[in-house]
Amino acid sequence: MQPTALSGLPAGVGEALEAEGVADLYPPQEAAVEAGVLDGESLVAAVPTASGKTLIAELAMLSAIERGGKALYIVPLRALASEKKAEFERWEDHGVTVGVSTGNYDSDGEWLATRDVIVATSEKVDSLIRNGAPWIDDLTCVVSDEVHLVDDASRGPTLEVTLAKLRQVNPGLQTVALSATVGNADVIAEWLDAELVESEWRPIDLRVGVHFGNAINFDDGSQREVPVDRGEEQTARLVADALDTEEEGQGGSSLVFVNSRRNAESSARKLADVTGPRLTVDERDRLRELAAEIRGVSDTDTSEDLADAVEDGSAFHHAGLAAEHRSLIEGAFRDRLIKCVSATPTLAAGVNTPARRVVVRDWRRYDGEFGGMKPLDVLEVHQMCGRAGRPGLDPYGEAVLLASDADTMDELFDRYVWADAEPVRSKLAAEPALRTHVLATVASGFASTRGGLLEFLENTLYATQTDDAGRLAAVTDSVLEYLAANGFLERDREGGTESLSATGIGHTVSRLYLDPMSAATMIDGLRDVCAVDDAAVEGAAAGAYERSAAADAADDGEDPGFGTYSRVGGDDGGETDADDADVDAAGDPASDITPLGLYHLVSRTPDMYELYLKSGDRETYTEICYEREAEFLGDVPSEYEDVRFEDWLAALKTARLLEDWADEVDEDRIAERYGVGPGDIRGKVDTAEWLLRAAETLAADVDGVDGDAVLAVRRARKRVEYGVREQLLDLAGVRDVGRKRARRLYEAGVETRADLREADKGVVLGALRGRERTAERILEHAGREDPSMDGIDADRSASAAATAGSGDGDDEGQASLGDFR
DNA sequence: CGTCCATATCTGTAGACAGCATGTC
DNA sequence: CTACAGATATGGACG
Question: Who has greater pLDDT, A49 or A686?
Answer without folding.
Answer: A686
